[in-house]
Amino acid sequence: MKTIVLDAGHGGYDYGAVNGSQYEKDDNLKMARLVAAELERQGERVVMTRDSDVFIPLLQRSIISNDHNADMFVSFHRNAFTNPEANGVENYIQINSPPSFAQNAQNVLDEIDKVGVLHNRGVKSNNFSVLRNTRAPAMLLELGFISNARDNAEFDKNANAYAVAIAKGIMRSLGETYNPNAGGGSGGGSGRRDTAREIQRGLNETYGAGLAVDGLYGPATRRALVRAFQTELNELYGAGLVADGVFGAKTKAAARTVRRGARNNLVYILQALLFFKDYDIAVDGIFGAATETAVKAFQTSRNLAADGLAGPNTFAALFN
């Protein structure tokens, strides 16, 4: 199982390119979600830089990928030009990337080409932030021109087929075998996504988070976990924090140490954070041996004192 970070370009107040009522940010998120579903059906692990209509700074998108030690990073976009006749699909890699990066991008284009596009504009290079600052092999896919009516028609008609094609190209690049009959029932991706959904439901029910229960870990779920953490510190210890979903200096200063034997919602939040950092533990609110082992392993990975005690520094690292 590989870890693939999918980046839906733009979002929130950043609409990207616009053609009438069609916004690039919406098309990007639609395609990222479709590709995520297909990859997870194949048993791969997917992380979304955003899973809702929010703005994420460019550097933060790369940080999300780097933080998850991604095997591949794919950023989704729609192109635009003043001449409405401009059309076609192109895939970008970072300037002076290894030849393998170009081959990865070509693999995705080849699969898309099989579905059908007006024009295959090929693999190109640029110094885009999300390519420059991401450690994993990265590509930025421009899936047709939103300024071109025919490209838009192809995007709308072939969205599902394009998503499958992109997933195939990604898996081919990662040396994974695509199974057209995969159901995801026994794959690690499906099981993890079910647990992620349970976490999101818990955040909605207990804290009114209003999350889409899609099993995709992105900025909205992270903010909800921060708000839950702040709420628990207020209720348990009278911390007086503003539950704004931002883990800043005040929240870190108010954090309390959670240790083995504890049973409360802070443990639940700790376990959820560890789960989203790829530690396969039960998210049950009970700080037992498995949770302590995961805390120690995470602390070691971040050069923290591996004492198994989840204190301010450990929570800060988990939230960042």
Topology:
Layout: E1 3-8, E2 18-19, E3 22-23, H1 24-41, E4 45-48, H2 58-67, E5 72-79, E6 89-94, H3 99-115, E7 120-126, H4 129-132, E8 138-145, H5 149-173, H6 188-207, H7 219-237, H8 249-254, H9 265-276, H10 289-301, H11 312-319
Helix pairs in contact: 1-5, 3-5, 7-9
Summarize the structure.
The protein is α/β, with parallel strands linked by helices and 320 residues long. The chain is 48% helix and 13% strand.
Q: Main β-sheet: number of strands, strand sense, barrel status?
A: 6 strands, mixed
- CATH class of the largest domain, anyone? Alpha Beta
- Going by CATH, the homologous superfamily of the largest domain would be Zn-dependent exopeptidases
CATH topology of the largest domain: Aminopeptidase
Q: Major sheet: order of its strands?
A: 4-1-5-8-6-7
> What's the overall average pLDDT, rounded?
93
Order of helices and strands: EEEHEHEEHEHEHHHHHHH
Give Rg in angstroms: 21 Å
The portion of residues assigned to helices is: 40-55%
CATH architecture level-2 label of the largest domain:
3-Layer(aba) Sandwich
Number of domains: 2
Q: What would the principal axes of the Cα set say about the shape? A: elongated
> Helix count, per DSSP?
11
Low-pLDDT runs: 184-188
Number of strands: 8
N→C terminal distance: 24 Å
Provide the β-strand percentage band. Answer: 5-15%
Structural class: alpha/beta
| Quaternary structure classification | single chain
